[in-house]
Specification:
heterodimer; A: about 110 residues; mainly beta; about 0% helix; globular; B: about 110 residues; seven-stranded mixed β-sheet; about 50% strand
């Protein structure tokens, strides 16, 4: 059974704080690691798709790193804003079977 | 613009009734997926399809069926609705590769009474 674990489950930060959370996944048969942002009452939207060990991707104040050998990825948010409040999901793809295995997400609340 | 749409957005049905949730995408994606989202469980895969006439069971497929007669549509049918199937249902599509991001519909909130 392939499991994807995310931590922490939830996080409350003040506006302007930088924060990060973790996605752990099986290190064997790795193909891709996805990060999605899911705002309340909306649908998940892709942030990054990462495939290479050591890869780092950035979109505005949000960035992600990937370590496929040890099976983890970090998502960083620099200078959190209230509009960053959302659940951040990661999903693992093994062996290009096109299905994604999802973590339960990290719920981020940014207080103004 | 290409999109993926679900209908209805909200539905209340009675136990034992057959219900079909529609999913239509104009991305021309081969891969389509149905998930349910419940508190404490995250996104759980119900059924998925990699192309026309292809359907596969996911981890929580009991009581559900899908058909794929064309590229654009993957309707989800609850054969005999049960209260345990009260949930929010999301449809998603993606291109062929596992590196392709998934695009989600807006979700359907189904209540079985």
């Amino acid at each position: 059974i392939l499991n994807v674990e995310q931590s922490p489950q939830s996080l409350h930060v003040q506006e302007g704080d930088s924060t990060n959370f973790t996605c752990s996944f099986p290190s064997s048969n790795f193909y891709a690691l996805h990060w999605y942002r899911w705002e309340t009452a909306k649908s998940p939207e892709a942030l990054f798709v990462m495939t290479l060990n050591g890869d780092e991707k950035k979109k505005g104040r949000i960035s992600a790193t990937l370590n496929t050998k040890e099976g983890y990825s970090y998502l960083y948010i620099k200078g959190s804003q209230p509009e960053d409040s959302a659940t951040y999901l990661c999903a693992f793809n093994a062996g290009n079977n096109r299905k994604l295995i999802w973590g339960l997400g990290t719920s981020l609340a940014v207080n103004p | 613009d290409a999109e993926i749409t679900q209908s209805p957005r909200h539905k209340i049905t009675e136990t034992g009734r057959q219900v079909t949730l529609a999913c239509h995408q104009t991305w021309n994606h081969n891969n389509m997926f149905w998930y349910r989202q419940d508190l404490g469980h995250g996104l759980r895969l119900i059924h998925y399809s990699y192309g026309v006439q292809d359907t596969n069971k996911g981890e929580v497929s009991d009581g559900y069926s899908v058909s794929r007669s064309n590229t654009e549509d993957l309707p989800l049918t609850l054969e005999s609705a049960a209260s345990s199937q009260t949930s929010v249902y999301f449809c998603a599509s993606s291109r062929d590769s596992g590196t392709s991001e998934a695009f989600f519909g807006q979700g359907t909130r189904l209540t079985v009474v």
